[in-house]
Amino acid sequence: MATTTADVPAPRERDETVGARIVRFLSKGPVYALLIFIGLLWLVPTLGLFITSLLSPSDFNEGGWWQVFSEPGKLTTENYARLFDTEAITSSLVTTVWIAVLGTILPLFIAALAGYAFAWLEFPGRDWLFILVIALLVVPLQMALIPIFSLYNTLGIFDTVIGIALFHTAFGLPFAIFLLRNFFIGIPKDILESARIDGASELRIFFRLILPLGIPALASLAIFQFLWTWNDLLVALTFGRSTQPITVAIYSQLRQFGQNIDLIATASFISLIVPLVVFFAFQRYFVQGLLAGSVK
Amino acid sequence: MAEVAFEGVSKIYADGTRAVNEMTLGIEDGEFMVLVGPSGCGKTTALRMVAGLEDISEGTLRIGERVVNHVAPRDRDIAMVFQSYALYPHLSVYDNIAFGLKMQKLPKDEIERRVQEAADVLGLESFLDRKPRALSGGQRQRVAMGRAIVREPQAFLMDEPLSNLDAKLRVQMRAEIARLQNDLGVTTVYVTHDQTEAMTMGDRVAVMRKGEIQQVDAPQELYDRPVNLFVAGFIGSPAMNMIEATLERANGGLAAVAGSQRIGLGEDTLAVRPGLRAFEGKTVVLGIRPEDLEDAALETDTPADRRLRGKIVLREALGAEIMAHFTMDARLAMTEDVKELARDVGDERVAEGEAAQDDATLVGRFGARSRVREGEETEVAVDTRALHFFDPETGLGIYDEQTQGKGAA
Predict the structure, then answer these.
(1) Which has the higher per-residue pLDDT, B407 or B195?
(2) With contact defined as beta carbons under 8 Å apart, do B292 and B381 qualify?
(3) What is the pLDDT, as a whole number, of residue A290?
(4) What percent of chain A has pLDDT over 70?
(5) Are A196 and B53 within 8 A, CB to CB?
């Protein structure tokens, strides 16, 4: 994922002879072949899901998805058209986006503030508090379902987007704080001291220096947290009734013998595409060496 | 611009160690003050206390009229250049330099004008759009300087700003910083462990050791009249030769006897250091700077009692001069100061007191025409007027009757 090579072009290839290139390819070839094979193998279920979503229910029932290779004419986008007419699915997509976005931005922002404090501010009990936060990593979220359920009932945020997002926030925080604190502590101290002398307040240092410099860590955290909240079924099922994200909506479409596989496959594929897009959108921020040139 | 005054300032860590001990030092308005000393002597801690990055455990620190003990760094109106430069890696050179001004919320055109001006002075005009990682070491150093000068602060603080540059660039930047400071006239506190930087840049130099100031003086004064062995050994390169010698009466004057050799000390020497008479018959530490030794073959009119005999063990030709290392049968002075200095340059044998003591190796700075060869016995002329003497008990230099230099150790 490192993409810093753009800064330093490697002069190696230019003066390589054809023979040397062939040798290099042959020596690395088997490894590439193996990697490509494994990659393809892992893609098979996704491909199956995608093709299934493009088959009409009757065609699907006649045989497996692989039959399209002999009869490509059977492919149709009718399922997608029907899916977007289904109110339950479209509204649940919107709900999912809300939950996932809130459930990603909230913990990221809070964890960034906390991570900065744990890394660079001095206050009594800091290290003990940090150990406590790390200790929270081992608490399984299933344990909290019942107590939080009754708490939400009292607070009146049961069956709301904010309730579900807050639960994700709470359980995303320990890891996020842990990761960001460890990243921030790697930022050279001189930079922060220099900013303090330059007249920046702690809040400005946080927004002007820590957040921009923390982009690689923030981006990777954002991806994981987004995937987690997007794919979550358990939390949404527990704390939502009419507030249904896509996972719950798909789940409620399940019949015993999978008669509405057309709807499920299509909705599943949609729900799979969004995290992929998010991943590819953020992965370019995983830039290594962002701190290059600051000290020494 | 302002004075910076340390009044009995100490830094005491939780475990009780005193990194800086009751430091009292007044830095005048517009003065270039260099704090110099071996690593761990507290010079950087002292600087960081001025910056507000370290708490002050005891004493009072003033910048201008204001006591700043409890003033936050951002309110002290100072600018600091870090050893690592500490540039903001995600900002362009322009934004790096403008950062402090933006924090002060100056109007945009004023920021623009000041940054351009600083870039102009430092030759950075064509790099303003670049990120620090696309700059060379020397350019980064300039950006760090630029960030300090645009602020137009009360004082510049510099923490070994040149130590990451290669030797040639360091000499160049040394001159540039000195010139810049001179032009701007801003009070500057400059920390370094390099005595050459201290000597060439400072209006005055404070030599520190183990958290205490040893001597504060103009560079030449430090060189000519070091208060103690530590200052004498630290200032000057190559370092001063220090051997044990006994003072004896010799036809009206005194003679320093080192091993089997004697050096006559005439009226001229005693006139400068009347305190020496009190040490008649006693052992002193005799300090001879390499530049006060010369191949006797080049100074044929040197009288016999101003010569040493030694065997050349190493000859380093530097073109303009020759560093001649020679051994003689005298004892190396082995005081705590000497050991600490040796530790600082990584000479473990001397630091642990294990060096062969009865065969002292001295360094002489001979003229380029000297024909000395390794392995040869040779005669070395000594400039007796420039000799230094120290009390081996206290390490203090022997000058007046009171045997005290200025200041106190």
Answers:
(1) B195
(2) no
(3) 58
(4) 90
(5) yes
Q: Which residues pair with B287 in a beta bridge?
A: B242, B388
Cβ–Cβ < 8 Å for A214, A181: no
Interface touch A293/B135, C-beta < 8 Å: yes
Q: CA of A212, closest CA in chain B: separation in Å?
A: 7
Residue A168 and residue A148: Cα distance in Å, rounded?
Answer: 12
Q: Is the CB of B88 less than 8 angstroms away from the CB of A196?
A: no
What value of ipTM does the predicted structure carry?
A: 0.85
Helix intervals (H) in B71-127: 93-103, 108-122
For each of the domains in chain A, give its residue range(s) and CATH number, in order of start. Answer: 18-76 (no CATH), 80-290 (1.10.3720.10)
Do the strands B253-258 and B241-250 form a parallel or antiparallel pair, or are they unpaired?
antiparallel
Q: Is A186 an 8 Å CB contact of chain B?
A: no
Distance from CA of A81 to the nearest CA of B (A): 46
> Would you state the pLDDT for residue B403?
43
List, for residues B26-38, the tens digit of each pLDDT value: 999 999 999 999 9
Contact A287/B at CB under 8 A = no
Mean pLDDT of chain B: 90
Calpha distance B11→B19 (Å, rounded): 5
Instruction: State the best of B50, B55, B83, B87 to mutate against chain A, taking most chain A CBs within 10 Å.
Output: B87
Q: What is the mean pLDDT of residues A6-31?
A: 70
